[in-house]
Amino acid sequence: MIITFAAAAAILVLINLLSIIIAGWRMEPSGKPAPLVRQRPPVSIVVPARGIEPFTAETLARAFSLDWPDYELIFCVASPRDPVVAEIRRAMAANPGVPTRILTGDDRISANPKLNNCVKGWKAARHDWVILADSNVLMPKDYVTHLMAGWHRNTGLVCSTPIGARPQGFWAEVECMFLNTQQARWQYAGEALGFGFAQGKSMLWFKPLLDDNGGIEALAAEIAEDAAATKLVNRLGYKVHLVSCPFDQPLGSRTRHDVWSRQARWARLRRVTFPLFFTPEILLGALPPLLFAVTAALLADVNAPAVGAAVLAAIYLPELALGLAKGWRVSLLSLPAILVRDVMLPLVWIRSWGNGAFVWRGNAMTIDTKVCELEEVVQ
Fold it and tell me: What stretches pass through the bilayer (predicted)?
């Protein structure tokens, strides 16, 4: 029994370390210039927008300042009365040289409000290369170049995970630890091993490929458009690839409720769409190997606190080193934020197996294994 517990702890620590090494090898440091691309075709960038966020003015300014010779911006807004429309118009007036359109209306093709908002933009796109980009992505000047450089002969879709940046307060630091050295790390490690999963923050499509296989409506096959995209691309015999350097998402302030509800929502979506990959997530984080190692130490009558400290050091020091090496957010609050994150991980995993409603951008959604319902919340 002692050997079993000790071996389980060692295996989990080793897997954790390998994921950091693989992700560190796969990803370039934040801010590194994009690789050169030979062809620079015109691109349509479709941005679903709703409401004013703390960094809206800056993310809009970035979108109008891309270093790409020919691109158009298509902003999709469900309601013409949304205050973000005026903000977009101000950005358009300040950047008249960038072809831009604002499309309003809501096409109910799915239970996913973001996908519904994107339909009109996808159909209006003038170019064969289309990027679906969330409005809170902080696009670098070489944003399009990064995405294009990720396209290879066997590629069906190029994406980027969000990297949490500019946190304000402790709970925003916790969200950075979820997004960066946890979720981005595992996603890049998986992609390097041939298990690429789409991420809806930034998605580069070759439009004829998707149009020939059901169009954007095909992404309504799952409650999450990135899950549907992953399954569609794999079914066609292609791969989902990630950019070499993921893009920042400025966080600002977050509350405990914000972090919990967002992580619980994502976990439920993963559980419903990829249950076989989601189930082992209970073994992620420091708690499982820590419990196995301490149990083995107690049974063997050795110094359990020292063993526990060694396990935590073997997990957290490489993780913090990864964040420093890639130029991600690492501060004096990072270690306590990681500890809180790893306490939350099993709780989020357990919560994901229950059904329930949540509100996402003004829409009440219910997720279970059989049905995903959507209804407008009365504002």
Answer: 6-25
Contact 75, 103 (CB under 8 A): yes
Q: Within a domain: residue 375?
A: no
The Cα–Cα gap between 58 and 87 comes to 11
Residues 8 and 74 in one domain: no
Reading the block at residue 19, the tokens are 């994921």
Tell me: the pLDDT tens digits for 133-162? 999 999 999 999 999 999 999 999 999 999
pLDDT digits (tens, 9 = 90+) for 217-226: 999 999 999 9
Q: Phi/psi at 16 (nearest 5 deg)?
A: -60, -45
Say if residue 12 is in the same domain as residue 157: no
Per-residue pLDDT, 1: 86
Q: Report residue 66 CA to chain centroid gap.
A: 21
Separation between Cα atoms, residue 154 and residue 186, nearest integer Å = 22
Structure tokens at 78: 């469900």
Considering the domain boundaries, does residue 379 fall inside one? no
**Are 95 and 119 part of one and the same domain?**
yes
Among 48, 67, 198, CA closest to 145:
67
CATH classification at residue 118: 3.90.550.10
Read off the pLDDT of residues 75-105 as tens digits, 9 standing for 90 and up.
999 999 999 999 999 999 999 999 999 999 9
pLDDT reported for residue 364? 54
Residues making up the chain, counted from first to last: 379
263 within a domain of the structure (yes/no): no
Q: What's the confidence (pLDDT) of residue 147?
A: 98
Distance, in Å, from the CA atom of 257 to the CA atom of 240, rounded to the nearest integer, reads 32
Which letter does DSSP use for residue 138 in this model? B
Which amino acid, one-letter code, is at 300? A
Range of 183's domain?
37-254
Number of structural domains the chain divides into = 2
pTM exceeds 0.85: yes
Report the Cα–Cα distance between both ends of the chain, in Å, rounded. Answer: 57
* CB-based contact 245:27 (threshold 8 Å): yes
- Beta-carbon contacts of 223 under 8 Å, excluding residues fewer than 6 positions away, are 110, 111, 112, 269, 272, 273, 365, 367, 372
Same domain for 215 and 345? no
Do 47 and 71 share a structural domain? yes
